[in-house]
Amino acid sequence: MVTAETAVVLPVLVVVLLAAAWVLSCIAAQLRCVDAARVGARAAARGDAPAAVEAATARVAPADAEIALTRDGDEVTVLVRAVVRPFGAALARLPGMPVAGRATAVTEGSLP
């Protein structure tokens, strides 16, 4: 038997659970961006070609992530940006949460 209290609380509980799932997917995408940036920075520091760096970064990054590689003297920086949509492509009209990760490494040839 469903009481009035249960009928009121059940939709609220579903909304809270969906929001928690979306927050967890944002956190997971943020961590993937950071990991991808680290992978890319390591590859660039080893002296890999820019195409190989982007390919290694893209393997770890979230889908449709933007990858930017910059060199400044003996340092390389990789920036990975992505937008996390609530519940994937099913609700693509909803605004997304931007996430990013950045990693900087010193090139191996410049180490003492």
Strand content: 15-25%
Helix- and strand-based class? alpha+beta
Q: Largest sheet, if any?
A: 3 strands, antiparallel
Are there runs of 5+ residues with pLDDT below 50, and where? none
Order of helices and strands: HHEEE
Helices, by number, come to 2
User: Helix content range of the residues, please?
Assistant: 40-55%
Q: Which strands sit side by side, in order, in the main sheet?
A: 1-2-3
Radius of gyration: 20 Å
**N-end to C-end Cα span:** 75 Å
| Total tally of structural domains | 1
Protein described:
It is built from two helices and three strands, in the order ααβββ. It is elongated, with a radius of gyration of 20 Å. The protein starts with a helix and ends in a 6-residue tail after the last strand. The protein has 112 residues and is an alpha+beta fold. It has a three-stranded antiparallel sheet with strand order 1-2-3, with helices on one face. It is 48% helix and 24% strand. The chain has one domain. Helix 1 runs antiparallel to helix 2 (50-60).
